[in-house]
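To: structure desk
From: M.T.
Subject: fold request, one chain
Message: Could you run this one when you get a chance? Sequence is below, nothing fancy, just the single chain.
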Amino acid sequence: MNLQQWSRFWEKVEKTPRCWFWVAGHNGHYGHLRSRVENRDYLAHRLIYETCIGPIPEGLEIDHECRNTLCVNPSHLRVATRLQNMLNSSHSIATFITRNHCSAGHEYTPGNTYMRGNTRSCRTCHARRERERRARHGRVIQSDKKREKP
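Reply: Done. Structure tokens follow.
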């Protein structure tokens, strides 16, 4: 980019003590700009990273360590794998993967967890739901009778 283009770039950045916000066009998540000279679109955070830090290795993406996708502060940007980027985000998969307990508070341990496709389930909660379902239908199986104390 030439000096005039850089000047236009910085006109679209609002610096705060922490983040540098891209205040021009965005696609709902990331700031973008169009170069009329090169007739192409750029994502603002990728452009600033490549200019200030260096090329983005193939297969990696830019992660906003500040979790603000409109930030173009190079010190807040790092290269990361897709998984690392998602784990650093507020994306629901990050919440799911990093969770250590089910919604009832039971710890996800190898003995108390089973996988159903890509979803973890709590064996303790599953057993409780099954007992409740059987009780609603008036069915008690032998293993439930063994658990009952006289």
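Reply (cont.): The beta strands are 13-15, 20-22, 32-35, 40-43, 61-64, 77-80, 113-116, 119-122. Let me know if you need anything else for the meeting.
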